[in-house]
Amino acid sequence: MSVYALWLAALPFMLGVGLLAWVIASLRRNAGLVDIFWALFFLAGAATYVWLSGPLTTRGWIVLLLVTVWALRLAGYLAKRNWNAPEDHRYRAIRRRHEPGFTWKSLYLVFGLQAVLAWFISAPLAAAIRSGAGFGVIDGIGVALAVFGILFESIADAQLARFKADVASAGKVMDGGVWRYTRHPNYFGEFCFWWGIYAMSFGAGAWWAIFSPLTMSLLLLRVSGVALLEKDIGERRPGYREYVLRTNAFFPGPRRGA
Prior knowledge:
- It is a single chain.
- The chain has 258 residues and is mostly helical.
- The protein has one domain.
- It contains 13 helices and no strands.
- The protein has helices spanning 3-9, 11-27, 34-53, 58-82, 89-98, 102-121, 123-130, 137-165, 185-203, 211-223, 226-229, 233-236, 240-246.
């Protein structure tokens, strides 16, 4: 099976995860629960690539391990945070725009769309898992970058969770820890993880899969990540405008001013 056929073979399974997510979210009337399943789409894709690829090389085992750790950690964190929380304001806005009948429309507007998008981005996983090429320096760089991304994102999420759990933090802006150097350390961690995965697929000869990390970077910076989150956060969070003035938006850097 060619790498392109292998990549395509994962689409039905990832759509199946999207259908399951839609059923659960519809029963709970909370489309925002799709965020929990975002990482699980990729885990389903990786599992499919492993299943259809036969015996794995060192690269294949490492990629599978990295994706599994990343996906379960992120899905678990979001499940703990979002399962019993009200529907996120982003999805409430989508719901208002598409009523009546949003529950059915969300099957393709939210869940199907995210499943297809995750499949598109998963191309480096297929290439890296299937490849029989030797493990080289570029792969090592990719592993280091992906591990750094997982750790950086995990630290950021843990620090934010502790901040929100402290009643003294109510109404305040998180600007300590890694949040002192970037306003979106969790997104920066995602960025590093996916460029690391791409480096491993590049080491396997799949240079063509560069559209994957580029797409993820675009999403994080201009679509559903930084740009969307900061669209109105200054109105919802007093003090955020001052935080913007002294803290880098995405790439970590020295704090500006006091």
